[in-house]
Amino acid sequence: MNDSDPATKSLTSLGKAIVEALQESRCPTLEIPDRRTSNIVFDENSNQYVLGLSRSVRDSSNVKHVKRFAQLTWAASFAKELLRTSRTSSLRDLYYSSEAFGVDFSDQSESDRIVTDLECLTGLPRESFGIYPEEHSSIYGEVLMRYTVSGYEGKEIDLTVSPDGLPIGPALMTAEPIKSDAELVLAVESGGMFSRLIETKAWKRFNAVLVQLGGQPPRSTRRLMRNLNVSLGLPVYIFTDGDPWGMHIAKVITSGSANSAHIKNLTIPGAKWIGVTPDDIVHYSLPTEPMSDADLKRLSELAQDVRYMESEWQHHINQFKKILIKAEQQAFSRFGMDYVVDTYLSEKIG
What we know:
- This protein is α/β, with parallel strands linked by helices and 350 residues long.
- The protein has helices at residues 6-23, 66-84, 91-100, 108-122, 170-174, 191-199, 202-205, 219-232, 244-255, 278-283, 293-304, 311-323, 339-349, and strands at residues 29-33, 40-43, 48-51, 55-59, 89-90, 131-132, 138-140, 143-146, 156-158, 166-167, 176-180, 184-188, 208-212, 236-239, 272-275, 289-290, 325-326.
- Helix 1 packs across helix 2 and helix 3 packs across helix 4.
- The protein starts with 5 loop residues before the first helix and ends with a helix.
């Protein structure tokens, strides 16, 4: 454990404050940035949601606060132990680990909220403490990365080492990009499309680093893409299904989400959504399905979302409302297995 590490220093400071209050016969209190909707504001300068100035207090002398206060201090202790032993934990593992200490979480969603409280309290993302969600994203491309995790420091890995791609976990998220012959990052929603782009050597054709998002990507994936964007100057293109949900995957990458309003340096403002747009559905005569009630409801929500106020995004929303159909990115297979590479992506990326 590195005592000068910001995460270690923050947790140590938290522990000392609690102990000092007890030694002075005071009930410890914790002041946490308020995550209620009323305190989540859209910052036009950064083009993302951030937390406002409101704070909430957890007072251990208040019987209504005691449970969450205890849960939070245990989560901090668990995180400190992860750092001390150079270990990592999934959110699921943290939930089950609590049982060994008699910490009462009703379900994992409750323990997840406590971890978010810890992020807000310290101003650091959970990844700084070695806590991650389950992996479901992958990466493939001509990039040389150098590991920084304990036991692998200094070791280098080429991201083309496996034809299946490499899972994006703690080691890759924190690795340093050393060099790359790539010219862009191409993020795709589905595993099937990711595999197709590897098989057809689309990554060579477009000089691209391929990222499988697996739906709405976890923060570790977004952070790695941002790292490649910032460190290597690689522009990011996002290729998703042609529906409101695919469009929102792209928008979260570019502008963040309300749930991550307390996390800094996570968005890629310059990333570009290249489709499947509603105009693409019509232009390429793609196989489609009718919009469901849930799709239409989601479109209406996006139309009112401050992140979608730019004319380009409003155009996409209005066109979806006009055509009332949707299409998956795999729909291009109707015209042949390689059509999506030879025609669609070639026209989109250039």
